[in-house]
Amino acid sequence: MLKPFHLSAFLLTVATPLAAQEVLPSWTDSPRKAAIISFVETVTDEDSEDFVRAPERIAVFDNDGTLWSEQPYYIQLAFALDQIKAKAGDHPEWQEQEPFSSVLNDDLEGIAAGGSEALMKLIAETHGDYVPEDFRAEVGQWLHQTNHPDYGQPYADLTFVPMVELLDYLRENDFKTFIVSGGGVEFIRAISEELYGIPPEQVVGSELKLVLEERDGVPAVIRQGEVTFINDHGGKPIGIASHIGRKPIAVFGNSDGDFEMLEWALDGTRPGLGMIVHHDDGERAVAYDRDSLAGRLDRGLDEADAQGWHLISMKDDWRQIFSFQEPTDPAEEPQTAQ
Amino acid sequence: MLKPFHLSAFLLTVATPLAAQEVLPSWTDSPRKAAIISFVETVTDEDSEDFVRAPERIAVFDNDGTLWSEQPYYIQLAFALDQIKAKAGDHPEWQEQEPFSSVLNDDLEGIAAGGSEALMKLIAETHGDYVPEDFRAEVGQWLHQTNHPDYGQPYADLTFVPMVELLDYLRENDFKTFIVSGGGVEFIRAISEELYGIPPEQVVGSELKLVLEERDGVPAVIRQGEVTFINDHGGKPIGIASHIGRKPIAVFGNSDGDFEMLEWALDGTRPGLGMIVHHDDGERAVAYDRDSLAGRLDRGLDEADAQGWHLISMKDDWRQIFSFQEPTDPAEEPQTAQ
User: Fold this and answer.
1) How big is the CA angle at A98 (ends A97 and A101), to the nearest 5 degrees?
2) A-chain residues within 8 Å CB-CB of B263?
3) Where are the beta strands (DSSP E) in chain B?
4) Spatial contact of A11 and A4, defined as CB atoms under 8 Å apart
5) What confidence tens digit (pLDDT) does each residue in A144-183 have?
6) Cα end-to-end span (Å), chain B
7) Closest-approach residue (CA) in chain B for A241
8) Is A237 on the interface with B (CB under 8 A)?
9) B259: distance to nearest CA of chain A, Å?
10) ipTM above 0.85 for this complex
11) pLDDT tens for residues A174-228?
């Protein structure tokens, strides 16, 4: 009897640290990582009173600032500005027309001064009159071929490694992962499968008008330049109710645009995990919160604690932010209380 | 060498008929069953030039008349009429008001005479001002507790056994199955998981306006009585583009309301399977097509052949329609050419 006993004790000793290393390796051993693992282990444990059966394990993620970079401005806006510049040769009148002239002069304040009307014009011009599949192909190509001005890396490489790991970890535990973004749904669908393993049908975003019409002799669904739904703030619970049809039990955001979604979904009637990515790392990325134009986090900072939502510190909780950066050495991490 | 050879030959002999019996057992050995199996075997065969990788194996099903009964009228309408009657005690004015007085007098022609405006009033009265989850609970209860007037069985039992088998068979082959119905999305979500194994997020239907407002001190998404999207005819490709975000490769319908979806999705650029359930069985169910109010099939009958879509004969292709009926004896089936 001695031998098997020794063997299993040996295996146990070796196996535990190995397994611990394998889960979420880009996360430091912080209370946030512990909270994620504890939540997942609880809701997947059939003997727990907080067990949640697999079809109800819905996890939703904001995109800009939660899964990838949103500074100095939303990647989708960078795409729109590039498209305007590329088309400007065919539109000499744009030199005198706002918001186009501001775009051509790289005058971001001028664009911002035009407010949402200016933004709608840019979207209509750059996102409308497309078959969705063609639009996605253009977006995909642009994301891979265009470098971010500060990082000097393709926009497609600006995803946050620890969040992509988190998506995988949740799916391994039979969660169904969705993106619920204020960004345009077709822009995100262009790369959601490649970058996040999330298929188009699991992307909820802002919407343009769709019409069915004949193109080249066959029926085609065409996107118009008219915005019909803004999936931000109070729009997010509506987008989820419409597209997913049940409340998520895990919600990840980074800005006050995610507040209503967190508050509505995590209503205390079932187990829930709410997390806000806090951009507090000014060295490996950009630090911003209360005063930022993109990804403003103000109310969420004040209320997260009372709501029971976790603030993820990018500086302390992540060994690596982008794949093109070296991870920090776990041995040099401060020991945090779990 | 002889023994293993004999053994495998023996296994082959035994295994083939067994396997053939196991797939779609409620379908007769008709060309339609053969077409389904051939299509599935082709798109799942990595060596085939028509191989389709799993995430793109999207199959969509109409609901009324395709997955369950729609005669003498849509089950959702039966629910609405019952709700009006149940509420009539609180609304004495309905005795004099259309379309309510027609409902209370069981005057279907009177309701129909009111057209879509009358229908909208009934929907607003019976479907609006609900939290979706509460509405679904009411619908689920009603479907289980209310008997169909002709079959004398609960409405929840009026699903077509061969189609439920088909849903399972497709999912076993890594298809993702969706309902794309002209019916109300929340009505179907009430029972899609239980009856069809389809979760709420894979149901696309007609939509009512949703608003986020405070109820009992917490934010709630409330359905209003206003119809914002009709997911029928040309609406189906739009509903699919919005909710699923890619074209299905397998499309199942039964009426001309499915025509545009079949035509748009099965565009010939990829392998595709289009099938129309033809209600030609007047013995076990109701026979109807060109002149029916619910589930009118006219254009589809004329054009199915030229489009390459298969007409499923409920009379000839199905051994069983409803679970409460006895299946026919395979030995007594006519031998059809495959």
Assistant:
1) 75
2) 219
3) 58-61, 176-184, 203-215, 218-229, 250-253, 273-278, 310-313
4) no
5) 999 999 999 999 999 999 999 999 999 999 999 999 999 9
6) 37
7) B221
8) yes
9) 12
10) yes
11) 999 999 999 999 999 999 999 999 999 999 999 999 999 999 899 999 999 899 9
